[in-house]
Every structure is written in structure tokens, then in C-alpha cells.
Amino acid sequence: MNIYGMTPQKLEEYFTKNGENPAKAAIVFDGIYRRGVTEFALLGLSQRVTDRLSKDFALSLPEIVEKLDSSDTAKLLLKLSDGEYVETVLMKQSFGCCICVSTQIGCAMGCRFCQSGRLKRRRDLLPEEIVGQLLTIQNEFGIKVSGVSIMGIGEPFDNFDNVRDFCEILTAPKGLEIGEKHITVSTCGLVPEIYRWAELAHPCNLAISLHAPNDDLRSQLMPINRRYPLDEVIKAAQHFSEKHNRRVTMEYIMLDGVNDAPLHAQQLADLIGERNFYVNIIPYNPTDADCFGKSSRDRLMAFYDVLKKNRIGVTMRREFGSELKAACGQLSSDYTKAKA
Ligand code: SAH
After folding, report:
1. How far apart, in Å, are the Cα atoms of 77 and each of 19, 163, 225, 235, 289?
2. Where does the pLDDT of residue 338 fall: very low under 50, low under 70, confident under 90, or very high at 90 and above?
3. From 12, 87, 180, 193, active-site residue
4. What is the pTM of this model?
5. DSSP per-residue letters across 174-233
6. Does residue 63 carry a catalytic annotation?
7. pLDDT beyond 90 at 30
8. DSSP-derived pairing of the beta strands 145-150 and 183-187
9. Mean pLDDT in the chain?
């Protein structure tokens, strides 16, 4: 077991089971996440407890294999303990450092515009491997991460429990203490898991990869739509939004001549209606498949204007990292490809 995979509750249970005061969990969290301690001996616990922890847990992070760095973005290729590779991205914004973490090796969803989906799913990442992405970035760049997007390689809700544990570790008091409103999980629309997410006491923000305003088009772009059609996805997102009084983001990649006409914008506005959703327009990033093109600035603006006229909240995703192949939909290490 790796200590970075333990939620506060699991660590408390571990101490209780071993006849120790569960409050020691907070001491461990403070040590490994706030003080950055990398040896159990430095936690300030008794010799007995230190020995026990050393026997039961590893305290290790993934190894950096490659580092790409530009003024506003960085990407790390990390090697996991079983030899698999994973990518993670840092976005340096004026208001703080945000990272985009991966949740699986490959992805089973097969969205046609996404590079990551071309790798097939090989396995889920463990909580410690997702936490490890964050800690490795903090250590490597000497920064404190203030926001987390769960939008790297993989479908987070296809690895629900590990992603939930990851969020619990991020938000734990005495630990990294990243607030749940500074974390966003993005799903291609796994409806039962959206309801499960809504059941959590303190879920992080929800984003839905929508990308099309009608079932015909969405099913062509995203195979998952045949299992969970648009109206079910919208209903689930609305349930989450109402239960937690939170705005839900609808992500929409602009694919030239495919989903970016003013008519599509009108359909999208009608679909959203009065719900507490907003649209995040995403410029398409080219991938190896290249059967899609980027919408022109004019088409993008025309789409934006239709949404605005219909009083739909809308933002444009700033383009980060395309020069490093670190942008949305471009993550997929050549290492993983070589092994696939
Ligand atoms: N599987 C999850 C999270 C990973 S994708 C999901 O589908 O939401 C993160 C975001 O990047 C999604 O909105 C996804 O649709 C988008 N994306 C995928 N390929 C892209 C591309 N080529 N250009 C721009 N965005 C892309």
C-alpha cells in the first residue's frame, strides 16, 4: 500500500485497527502534504508508530521521464511502479497554478475527436497515482497547486471509487486543503455515476463533455451517447446542479463544419433552457486522426453570439499547451502508444 492513496478516513481506520489513536491520521496528513516530509521518521511520531508505518506503507512518487516546459504550460511524462506511463499538465495562470490529471491508462470511451481514446483502456489509476501527479508537479516546479481539473487521459467516472478517494485526499483538512469548488471532474456522460457523484456529501464541480446539441450528431461523435442519450445526461446534470446548488459546465468543442453552425448553437440554447448550466466553448486541438478541423474565429464568435442572445452563460476555454501537445484531447504519450 502507498500512503498517498489513503483517505483521512481510511488512515484513521488503520490506526484504530492497530490500537492507536486515530487522531494520528491528521499528523500524517500534515507531515506528508503540508510539510512535504518524505520519510516516516520525520513525522514526529513515536518509534513504534514510525516502524509500523514503514512496514505497512510505501512513501513513493512516480518517476519523471520527460519534462516539457513553456511560459504558461508544462507537461510531465511519469513512469508508474508497474512500468506504465502517464501524462499530467500544469497551467500557470495569473491567479494560480492549475493542473490537469489523468485517471486511467488509455480510455475505453472512443470519442472520435480525442487522441487519448485511441489508446484503449489498459487499467485504472490508483488514488496514489493521481495524487502522485499533483505532488510530483509541486515538487518539480516548487509551486502550490490551487486548482485541479480531472480532465486528462481517461474517463474519471469509469474509475469512480479511485477518483472519489483522490478528491477526498485533495480536500482533507490538514492536508492539501484544495476546496471542492476548485476541483472539476469532467465526464463524457456516464449517467448512473453522475447520480452517484451527486450523492456525495461534498462533491467537486461537475463538467459534462457535451459537444453536440442533438442525439444524431452526438452519437456519431461519442459512442457513449448510444447508451446514455442527451436527455438522460441533461436530467442527471440538472439533478446534480439542484442538489448542490452548483453551476454545471457543458463543454463544447468546436469542430469545423460539424457542430459549429448557428443552428447548433440555437439547439444547444434550447436544450439548456433555464437550467443552471453554462457552456465552455473549446477550440478543437488537432490530433493524429485529423478528420476534424478547427472552427474559424468568425464561426466561433457567431456561435457565441447566438448563445449570448439566448442568455446562456458562456466562456471560451483559453488555449493552453498545444505547442507541447499538452492540450485537451492531445494527451497520449508516445511511450504508451509504443507499448500498445
Ligand atoms: N473523459 C472525460 C475527461 C477527459 S477529456 C471527458 O470526456 O470529459 C477532457 C476534455 O477535453 C473533454 O471535454 C474532451 O471532450 C476534450 N477534448 C477531447 N479531445 C479534444 C480535442 N481534440 N480538442 C479539444 N478538446 C478535446
Report:
1. 40, 20, 31, 37, 22
2. very low
3. 87
4. 0.94
5. TTT---GGGEEEEES--HHHHHHHHHSSS--EEEEE---SSHHHHHHH-THHHHS-HHHH
6. no
7. yes
8. parallel
9. 93
